[in-house]
Amino acid sequence: MADQIPNVDSLIPRWFAVYTRSRHESTCVNQMRQRSIEHFFPTYRALRRWKDRQKRLSLPLFPGYLFVRISFDQRRSVLLIPGVVQIVGFGDRPAPIGDDEIENLRRILSQGAAVEPHRYLGVGQTVRIARGLLAGLEGVLVRKKGQLRLLISIELIRQSATIEVDAADVEPVARVAPTAGRQPLQRRRLPQANLSLAPTLVRQSLPCES
Fold this sequence. Notes:
The protein has 3 helices and 15 strands. By secondary structure, it is mainly β.
């Protein structure tokens, strides 16, 4: 019998979004660190106030999500981690996230920009930062509490974050007309009863063993 030739694409490391149980992001990150799984867990600093004190905390930028860079054949090692619910995907396969989306997030966080979560937006005026350390970064321009902010989104998991920008530092981005006859990708809602932030995607879970 001829030897099986592995699919080259299944061996190439790509970024994937991992959905976790509520408040289990840090636990999953620690497990990935111990297992030498490349991961990215974006966080932001927020001030929390109580009656008798206040404290600045490091919180998940996208609650319930983190990112791993693995090959398709390594997905089982991620799904076996306690606290991991699924790898986000379409149909029966995990869906990779573009390297540029992850790199944009890393650039923002590494520059110490004032970043915070924001409700997901799919439409709006797209602009590009024209100058400064984040020059070239694109996103949707929004106004919050009287300040202009640039909204960036990870479409796959329908999560967004914003950073403060100056109106003089951004420029509009021309939209490209969609190709005629091209149909949008259809998605089905995830069958989770109480996950308001869950991705509207099909579940990719660990198969049962006999």
